[in-house]
Amino acid sequence: MLLKFVNRKDELAFLESQYFARNASFVVIYGRRRVGKTELITRFIEEKPFFYYLCKRQDMSLELERFKDKFSEALNVHLRSPKSFEELFSEILEKIDAKRKFVIAIDEFTYWIEKDKTIISTFQVIWDQLLLKKNVMLILSGSIVSLMETEVLGYKSPLYGRRTGQWDVSPLSFFTLREFLPKYSVEDLVRAYSCTNAIPLYLLQFSPDKPFEENVNSTFFKKGSILYEEGEFLLMEELREVDTYLNIVLAISQGATKLSEIASKSSVDITNILKYLKVLMRLGVIKKTKPVTLRKEKTKKAVFKVSDKFFRFWTMFVYPYKAEIERGIISLSRFRNEFNTYLGEAFEDVCEEFLVELNKKQELPFAFTRIGKEWGIIPVNKKGDNVYDIDVVALNDSSKEILFCECKWQNKVDAKRILAELKEKTKFVQWNSDNRKEYYAVFAKSFKEKIKEPNLFLFDLNDFEKALQ
Hints:
Elements: H1 9-19, E1 25-30, H2 37-45, E2 50-54, H3 60-75, H4 85-95, E3 102-107, H5 109-115, H6 118-131, E4 136-142, H7 145-152, E5 165-168, H8 186-196, H9 200-204, H10 212-219, H11 226-236, H12 242-253, H13 259-266, H14 273-282, E6 286-289, E7 303-306, H15 309-317, H16 322-326, H17 336-360, E8 370-377, E9 387-396, E10 401-408, H18 415-426, E11 437-444, E12 456-459, H19 461-468
Parallel strand pairs: 1-4, 1-5, 2-3, 3-4, 10-11, 11-12
Antiparallel strand pairs: 6-7, 8-9, 9-10
Helix pairs in contact: 4-6, 8-15, 8-17, 11-12, 12-13, 12-15
């Protein structure tokens, strides 16, 4: 399978700035598996003097010898059998040409940490005593995010304070999907985004010539496919109690958002649930989110959401039905109604990305500084009917301007009715209530009628199509 390199301009610009810095550079790259870290590094080191090494999970004495052999082979030089990595790097520095900055990229560094945590202190010595004053760029990359954050980036790490930069490689934007699936309609691109999370390797499992549902059935719903096993595999890389974590993700995917709800639905003791949630947050599978208008971090209004759309889809539609999938008696058509409802939340994320793009291009009436969801209490209503929820809100604290948005994954939406309901909900948003400028937006597949009102924006799939071009 050919790997596709798409839209990593910011990441490449960052790496280039590190490379052309006057002094030695030490960059940490991390992010969940399959997100494209190796492809990013490979593209960056093109046409530069470099040595790239992919770590293995094996005894460190074997890795030391293998590192030496790979370097000798790559640069066609002779190296003595070293007794330590310090000795090996000392000799490597004698073999490289110092006229151009030389890149040493070590991928899946967390494999070494798993085998021997003292490797971190070893690289502290290598950096401090050997590389710091040389014309080199050291890249350490890893996919086990929790280890990278604690053992490499963390305050207690021997490497803390030594890196010159770090980059958390995120999934691609929705607006890059057309490059993978050029024949797909906007509607099908939203569907693909909702289950792949715009992870390059997952998108590459889809055939551009197959309809969306056929692609899903031949990947997620087919034993032996990468995507069929992927949810468990990703967690097994980092965790022991995989089923417990998957049940927690499933509970949140199905609407449990508070600690007590999640604990009850996943059958985890309430006294232990926070420990599991913190791990999943560290892995980027879930997030704790609060209403966008609130500035303080600690609030009782905070809720848990599944932030990784691949995990959300996999835990809802694959994980509970593995027995049926293995027998070949189930496909996406079984969940057509549930999947359409599921797409509503994914569409909200796409709408948010759309607004971010407009904000970058300065195509909105104001430049927002924060964006997210908003919810709260309607004090005049009875319990059970006293909560409001606004899909997307963008605001600027300085100019006191705010944009309220509703996102409807539906055709022929009545914009007038949705706008009236939205305006009613905004009355309960406690943010600069006496002195703010309000704007409104409604997103939909299509509208019954595109009405015009002051400070109102209507966006349908045709507008997304234009943004994709």
